[in-house]
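SAMPLE LOG
Freezer: B-3
Tube label: C17
Construct: single chain, 354 aa
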Amino acid sequence: MSSETGPSKDVSEEHLPSERVSHGAVEPAGDPFADPGLPPHEHRRQDIDERAAKSSERTVALLFVVSMLATIGFIASFVAIPVDRITYIWPMGNISALNFALGMTLGISLFCIGAGAVHWARTLMSDEEHVQERHPIEATPETKAQVLSDFRMGAAESQFGRRKLIRNTMFGALALVPLSGVVLLRDLGPLPEDKLRHTPWEKGKLLINQNTHEPLRAEDVTVGSLTFAVPEGLEHDDPHYMEELAKAALMLVRLEPEDIKDKRELDWSHEGIVAFSKICTHVGCPISLYEQQTHHVLCPCHQSTFDLSDGARVIFGPAGHPLPQLRIGVNSEGYLEALDDFKEPVGPSFWERG
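STRUCTURE (predicted):
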């Protein structure tokens, strides 16, 4: 029986894998994971048909013009639509007409700028891909020159100078969009002047229990309790009720007179009943947590803590000022009343507070 060292005769030579020997190992002749490279570049319709390019140019310009009109609509809506107007819009139901108009116009304005830029890039700017090998971070003079050359070539290929209609309408859209933000600054004025320094409290106004809506007597405020009050005449049906309440909200605590450390606080109290603003001097949260043993009140938002036995000074937290105190007394009928307005602005600190 004879032996053969070559391939079996019943297997065709052309079906066997080609092999090469390298350092004693057998490896395939070709790399199966080789980079195939970029596919052949295919021209778009706009690259070869000027009519199609003009059509794309008009589409981009139209999107920019719509953006400008939407920005103008945003400004007009902000000026013309009352803030309290409610309208029915399917399927959302009853919503604020002003919020809907502002949202729609600003959304359309920004969308059209983005859509115009995308359509411009996809149809008119050069879409030919170029592969550049990675290079060191520090660029060589040749690389810098190449970048400048590529930039100039990109500017030329974008047809920014040639497509004047696109360029001018894009500038118009970009110039008008910031006006949306400028118009919103109207809500920051007019200047408050001295409005932050005055509240509905004044001499002779009764302290009304915020829960029972009845005038408070001294005996209604007991040791260890925290009572909330509003000024007489502040009604729920007042369109400015919440604005006035934000400045006039009051909390009352009865302390033993000998526990009061601040002399002015003692002079402004009645039989140990002290009245302080309920509005935290940090960011304006309502204070509602009272600890009888320490006479401390805590703001639940950022844990600013005030000592009501020592002029409501800040003993912990980010608040920058003590709580303003309201001077109180009793009238001839035994009801608690204010003897003046707050001497300091209530609520958060501001740069002109002094």
